[in-house]
Amino acid sequence: MDTNVVFAGSEEIDWGGGRAEDGKTMNKTKTLSSNVHTGLPNPLTDPVKCSLIKGDYLYFHYGCDGHDDRGWGCGYRTVQTMASWLSRNCVTLNDKHRAPPSLPEIQQALVTMGDKPGSFSCSREWIGTCEASLVLDCFYDVPCKLVHVRGGGAELEHVAVEELHRHFEKHGSPVMMGGDRDNSSKGVVGVCTGDNGSYLLVVDPHYYGGPLEKTELQKRGWVAWKRVSSLDQSSFYNLCMPQTANKGT
To answer: Residue 48 is part of a domain; what is its CATH number?
Structure first.
């Protein structure tokens, strides 16, 4: 695939010189697809309630900057997707729309603020929702609400789903979700509830390859509605929710 092609609904990214050197790399992609959930039909024909993200964002995924971060970088990519939303929909104290930070910038920020030791920079250490909240507050002056959801269908269906409905209705920003047994980071951009359970609209950062149109990403399942009951019922989950009310333009 020609990585220089620019799809409708995509945006060119200037990665600058911040790419970490880390063994294998793929061709540096200068385009990222935007709003990759749009056009995906609701999972229920007659839902009781559906709540979705408000505003534009870019889809960050493994290797999109030429850095092969497969196996450990999913949390960083979800943070970058969230940052892209903040840069477009939320004005910081400095009134500047800052581009999403690179992986090295995220790691260095965590070292500088004292959350991680110096050896964390240029490492392959993963990050979770707690680190995500620190990074987004550092770069965008946006605090995040962290919600801990114990494992089990009842907790996920009630606590997580209700929190997500409230979040999208009030704040409209993407959410990061991760757990212990299920420790794969997920971007959540919507929730849909019916009489027999709920679905999460998941933007999965684990895709590795050149840019794809959103219809192809949806076809391959990288952007999809996932039944809450399909989540690991023995894993706890944490939600990182940027608190952006009254900050938008």
So the answer is: 3.90.70.130
Query: Catalytic: 74?
Result: yes
Number of domains in the chain: 1
Please report whether residue 184 resides in a domain: yes
Determine the structural domain holding residue 113 and report its residue range: 23-242
Residue 8 lies in a domain: no
Marked catalytic residue, from 68, 158, 182, 206: 206
8 Å CB contact between 77 and 132: no
Residue 3 lies in a domain: no
Contact 27, 208 (CB under 8 A): no
Residue 37 annotated as catalytic: no
Please write the tens of the pLDDT for every residue from 204-239: 999 999 889 999 999 999 999 999 999 988 899 999
Q: pLDDT tens digit string along 11-36?
A: 555 544 443 333 343 445 458 999 99
Among candidate residues 61, 69, 204, 240, the one labeled active-site is 204
Is there a contact between 146 and 130 (Cβ–Cβ < 8 Å)? yes
Please pick, among 50, 64, 74, 144, the residue that the annotation labels catalytic: 74
Please indicate, yes or no, if residue 165 is contained in any of the structural domains: yes
Half-sphere exposure of 85 (CA within 13 A, CB side): 28
- What b/e sequence results for 71-94 when a residue is b if at least 16 CB atoms lie within 10 Å of its CB, and e otherwise? eebbbbbbbbbbbbbbbbbbeeee
AA identity, residue 198? S
